[in-house]
Amino acid sequence: MNIRQELAENQTVLLLLPGTEYNRAIVDTAKSLRGKKICYITLNRTYQSLQQLFAKHNAQLKDTTYVDVITLAIKKPDESPKNVHFFSPKELAGAFAHIGSLLTKNYDYLVFDSLTNLFSYKDTEDVEAYIFILINKIRQTKTKAVLYALDEQETLIPRCCMYVDKTTHYAP
């Protein structure tokens, strides 16, 4: 699967991933998008964990801004690099408002990792509202977006599918 090609044809893509291929899929996506300006929203792994995973597989994302919504749930960060914005899961409204302001900075791509994790913090109706607002903010820009979700959780996301341009399954 070539996510960059999918995003060339669609502004927003929901990528359904098998849990057993999750790390491989996010590494493949990172390799496909590297060299571009990226806003990476993570509700799944800390930004440090992502950077380590990407470095291990030679998929470093150099011009990337992270919105990390997991680190503060675990610990206070040792440092706060200028390209990382920390929010706790309790501050999702603030995180999404911040993402909206970041989109004015002309990112090539936005990666949302993941809808599955968002469902663990919010009810289905709230998730749908967050995604509806996010997708509409993305549509006001030239930014292309890929949103991840576990395909095992597919029953949770059918209404979110209607907001994206394409829903597809990851195929290595």
Summarize the structure.
The chain is α/β, with parallel strands linked by helices. It has helices spanning 3-9, 22-33, 47-56, 71-74, 92-102, 115-121, 124-139, 158-161; strands at 12-17, 38-42, 64-68, 84-86, 109-113, 144-150, 166-169.
The share of residues in helices is 40-55%
**Whole-number count of domains:** 1
CATH superfamily: P-loop containing nucleotide triphosphate hydrolases
Could you report the average pLDDT, rounded to the nearest whole number? 91
| SSE pattern, N- to C-terminal | HEHEHEHEHEHHEHE
Gyration radius, to the nearest Å? 15 Å
Distance between the termini: 6 Å
Instruction: Count the beta strands.
Output: 7
The CATH architecture designation is 3-Layer(aba) Sandwich
Content-based structural category: alpha/beta
So what's the overall shape?
globular
Percent strand equals 15-25%
Q: Give unreliable regions as ranges.
A: none
CATH class: Alpha Beta
Tally of contiguous helical segments: 8
CATH topology category name? Rossmann fold
Largest sheet: 7 strands, parallel
Major sheet: arrangement of strands: 4-3-2-5-6-1-7
